[in-house]
Amino acid sequence: MRKMSRLLALFALVLAAACSQAPKAPPTQGGPALWQVQRGELKGWLFGTIHVLPRGVAWDTPTLKDAMAKADRLVLEAADLQDEQKTLGLFEKMGRTPGLPPLEQRVPAEEKAALDKAMADGGTNTQLLSGYESWAAAMLLSAASQQDLGVSQSDGVEPVLIETFKKAKKPIGGLETVERQFGAFDTLPEAAQSRLLVQTVHEAKGMKALYDRILKAWLKGDMEAIAKEDEIGEQPDPMVEEAVLVQRNRDWVKAIEPMRGKPFIAVGAGHLTGRENLIDLLEARGFTVTRVQ
Fold first, then answer.
1. Would the pLDDT of 9 be above 90?
2. Contact 9, 146 (CB under 8 A)
3. 175: pLDDT strictly greater than 80
4. What's the CA gap between 6 and 271, in Å, rounded?
5. Of 152, 177, 155, 161, the residue nearest 34 (C-alpha)
6. Packing angle between helix 3-16 and helix 207-220, nearest 10 degrees?
7. Under a CB-based contact definition with an 8 Å cutoff, are residues 135 and 193 in contact?
8. If you average pLDDT over residues 124-144, what whole number do you get?
9. Burial per residue of 221-234, b for 16 or more beta-carbon CB atoms within 10 angstroms, e otherwise
């Protein structure tokens, strides 16, 4: 999915708990992209993940397993995202505001029919979504539109990484908190939230074909193909991109800079392409980033 779609998917499948059966994905051809990151006393790895997967996808190649075995800890975007109760609690607390206008009043008149169709196709409606701020309604609508993809967060990369490092009794941390992630959306002005909602409506149609292309590219480690998907079609609102992608990448570099040892850093692959992506920002700070898979 394109950057905003992938970002919404990070939370959406936690909220939707989509767990339908799906055929196994094609076998890996080279494996998902992995880099070694070095500077001073840091010699770790940077892995571009995909947050939601069909059941039975084989992605943990020998190269990845070796890196995980050598790493001294796991660093995720937000370690507490796996705490479903906490995530849902924060979402309800931050995503709801009393007295909001109906959802259809928060999009341009020419988008109302598309919004109605997206909600109907996803099995939801304005009565259920109107109690949420526009960013939160966009997440819930994204979750609803993904129901027929046959994917779930429980089958994604992060649960496997967490289980692997837990078994090895290695610490697990995060570059930020779930509250910080939701806050990136929650602090957007309403106009930007409305534009995010409209883009979610537009991308609901054709979501499956887009996801299938991204999954194939990710399994091959084809970052160029992923970057091209990000450039196709509707571009993210600049204010949303700045707050939700770019600024978080900048914050993550600050979190990585003081690290020592051998961390295995795993973030969504969408953060590793495009403007001010994490790799470029690390290299600008003097890190050597070398592709190893």
1. no
2. yes
3. yes
4. 10
5. 161
6. 100
7. yes
8. 91
9. bbbeebbebbeeee
The amino acid that residue 248 corresponds to is R
What whole-number distance in Å separates Cα of residue 211 and Cα of residue 216?
9
Percent of the chain scored above 70 by pLDDT? 87
Please compute the mean of the pLDDT values over residues 37-51 and round it to a whole number.
95
Indicate the residue type of 4: M
- According to DSSP, the residues that pair with 288 across neighbouring strands are 38
Pick from 146, 140, 110: nearest CA to 127: 140
The secondary structure element, H or E, covering residue 251 is helix 247-256
User: CA-CA distance, 258 to 260, in Å (whole number)?
Assistant: 7
Which parts of the chain are beta strand (E)? 34-39, 42-49, 53-54, 73-76, 151-152, 172-174, 263-268, 288-291
The rounded distance, in Å, linking the Cα atoms of 268 and 49 is: 5
Question: For the segment 105-122, what is each residue's pLDDT rounded down to a tens digit?
Answer: 999 999 999 999 989 988
CA angle 279, 207, 190 (to 5 degrees): 75
Quick one: which of 229, 36, 59 has its CA closest to 156? Answer: 59
Give the rounded distance of the alpha carbon of 68 from its chain centre. Answer: 21
User: Taking Cα atoms as reference points, which of 147, 145, 163, 200 lies closest to residue 60?
Assistant: 163
**Average pLDDT of 26-32?**
63
Mean residue pLDDT across the chain: 85
